[in-house]
Task: inverse folding
């Protein structure tokens, strides 16, 4: 870890990814601080997923620099993977495994000690109100519960940063609200949250929001400042004003 | 190591909890062995023979009794007129009608050549050929050993050199082994890897600190185990149910089969790196592995009878080499030294396919 970087856990400097002639991510530059909830917005095809893959060490940048948790995305992908959690837009848990089997599997993958797994997973199951369901197959849980469980599993090993790729797709506003309570709890413990979403009400919950258009970051500020800057009353207005300029579609 | 074990346990859970997969994995080998061993058979059995003898005599009576006594044939009756012959065959009451010529009455007399015309339902030409061969042999036998006959009068002597009882299971068992091991390992492995891609859990695993090669290795372990179990099932069923002897080295046979299983797993991995959906992985396994294995490996149709082009194609089908080698070791009882070529070919394929799929796998991760 480099002390000079202090509290900055994600740094992107002109980070670029090209596939042939197509520039999926076009020189993006930003920083995310420790414990921050950072919203990463953009229309479909704007380049969010590609950018996220670079931060997770799955994809090497074509140009520019990036670091996550103090590790270089180009050369230290393995260290990055140990220090992040990840929950994808598609469902992250195994439907044909029981609740406790899923927790144990992922805890084991991330190297949580055998003795700790048991006590911590019991504590977690009680906290989520899922203790009675520990022997149920994940496929039998309601979607909202599955997502809460998936998030809890993603931060089970106390990562520095957790990447959430459209974590709340398909659930009602109440379940989303409950999900965000978990996110706030995690942020209070010092875990940095990097979240992509399609829901503009969720964008309001973030500390800061960036909006990607055609591979570039066209706006980056707190939700309040962005609304002021674009003269609208909600994030939806900001998003539409920017998305209108987009040349790439789905 | 602990991580690896928890991955392997997870894979076993996936298999055991999916009833359909379990049924295919465990049921298919048994059903196929029993089907091919008993129901689907090229053997000549219970062939119904009728006869027409306008000049019935003692010799004919003895010969007919001899045919009836043979395991392959049942004498179903006598035709009284020539029209009857046609009728018996058309109505399906008889497969063969033996027509004893007028000369037959002069049997044993000097200068006479008694003839039997065999009129055979040749809808299935292969069966007809086999039936005629065996019946001719029975008739020849009768004249050669005149235990009441009249002495050596009929000339041609045919003998069956291959598989004297013509058991088709001798032929099928190595073929089924080649087929089942290839399909189960390759298809099941590829589907299970592609399923994780499709559902999205593969992404989660790749983001985790676990090594991609470890994930894949953990996927292969259960299928390798189950394939070895299947191999054991097939061998036990062959020996105890189909009464097929293992003439050569059992350990050699098992080791060679494991090499082949490893190759099938490599094929599965290769398919999974190319295909994106479970359905396409299944189709490719079926069209790319199952069909060629059944049709071109020599399992059903002998490779030697194929046109040159198909023979070349069959050279790249692993099952062809596997089946040849298993026939040599299991049925002919040749020593392992006799299948060095097959071992080399399968081993070479294993290296090439593994290399290709690893290269593809790494590329896909980018």
Result:
């Amino acid at each position: 870890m480099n002390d000079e970087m202090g509290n900055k856990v994600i740094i992107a400097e002109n980070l670029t990814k090209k596939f042939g002639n197509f520039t999926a991510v076009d020189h993006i530059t930003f920083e995310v601080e420790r414990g921050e909830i950072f919203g990463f917005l953009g229309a479909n095809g704007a380049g969010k997923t590609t950018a996220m893959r670079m931060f997770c060490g799955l994809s090497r940048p074509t140009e520019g620099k990036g670091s996550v948790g103090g590790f270089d995305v180009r050369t230290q992908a393995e260290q990055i993977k140990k220090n992040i959690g990840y929950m994808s837009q598609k469902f992250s848990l195994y439907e044909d495994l029981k609740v406790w089997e899923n927790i144990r599997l992922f805890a084991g993958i991330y190297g949580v000690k055998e003795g700790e797994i048991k006590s911590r997973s019991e504590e977690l199951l009680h906290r989520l109100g899922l203790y009675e369901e520990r022997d149920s197959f994940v496929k039998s849980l309601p979607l909202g519960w599955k997502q809460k469980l998936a998030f809890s599993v993603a931060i089970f090993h106390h990562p520095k940063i957790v990447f959430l790729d459209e974590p709340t797709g398909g659930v009602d506003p109440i379940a989303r609200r409950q999900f965000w309570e978990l996110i706030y709890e995690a942020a209070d413990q010092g875990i940095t949250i990097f979240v992509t979403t399609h829901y503009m009400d969720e964008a309001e919950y973030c500390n800061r929001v960036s909006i990607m258009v055609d591979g570039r970051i066209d706006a980056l500020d707190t939700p309040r400042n962005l609304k002021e800057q674009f003269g609208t009353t909600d994030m939806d207005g900001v998003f539409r004003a920017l998305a209108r300029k987009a040349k790439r579609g789905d | 190591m602990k991580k690896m074990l928890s991955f392997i346990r997870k894979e076993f859970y996936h298999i055991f909890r999916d009833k359909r997969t379990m049924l295919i994995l465990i049921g298919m080998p048994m059903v196929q062995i029993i089907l091919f061993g008993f129901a689907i058979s090229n053997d000549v059995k219970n062939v119904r023979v009728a006869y027409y003898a306008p000049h019935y005599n003692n010799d004919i009576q003895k010969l007919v009794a001899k045919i009836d006594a043979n395991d392959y044939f049942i004498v179903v009756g006598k035709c009284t007129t020539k029209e009857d012959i046609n009728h018996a065959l058309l109505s399906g009451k008889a497969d063969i009608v033996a027509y004893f010529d007028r000369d037959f009455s002069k049997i044993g007399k000097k200068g006479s050549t008694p003839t039997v015309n065999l009129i055979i339902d040749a809808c299935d030409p292969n069966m007809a050929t086999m039936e005629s061969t065996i019946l001719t042999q029975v008739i020849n036998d009768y004249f050669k050993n005149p235990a009441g006959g009249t002495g050596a009068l009929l000339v041609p002597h045919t003998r069956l050199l291959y598989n004297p009882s013509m058991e088709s299971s001798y032929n099928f068992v190595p073929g089924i082994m080649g087929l089942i091991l290839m399909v189960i390992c390759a298809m099941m492995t590829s589907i299970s890897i592609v399923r994780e891609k499709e559902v999205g859990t593969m992404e989660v695993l790749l983001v985790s600190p676990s090594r991609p090669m470890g994930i894949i290795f953990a996927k292969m372990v259960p299928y390798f185990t189950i394939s070895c179990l299947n191999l054991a099932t097939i061998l036990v069923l062959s020996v105890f149910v189909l009464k097929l002897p293992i003439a050569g080295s059992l350990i050699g046979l098992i080791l060679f089969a494991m090499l082949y299983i490893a190759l099938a797993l490599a094929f599965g991995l290769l398919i999974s790196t190319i295909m994106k959906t479970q359905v396409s992985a299944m189709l490719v396994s079926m069209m790319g592995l199952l069909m060629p294995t059944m049709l071109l490996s020599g399992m059903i149709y002998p490779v030697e009878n194929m046109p040159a082009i198909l023979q070349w194609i069959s050279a790249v089908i692993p099952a062809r080499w596997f089946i040849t080698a298993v026939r040599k070791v299991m049925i002919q009882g040749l020593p392992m030294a006799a299948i060095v070529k097959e071992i080399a070919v399968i081993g070479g394929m294993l290296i090439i396919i593994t290399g290709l799929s690893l290269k593809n796998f790494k590329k896909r991760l980018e």
In short: The interface with chain B takes residues 56-60, 78, 81-82, 84, 86-97, 101, 104-106, 108-111, 114, 163 of chain A (CB under 8 Å).
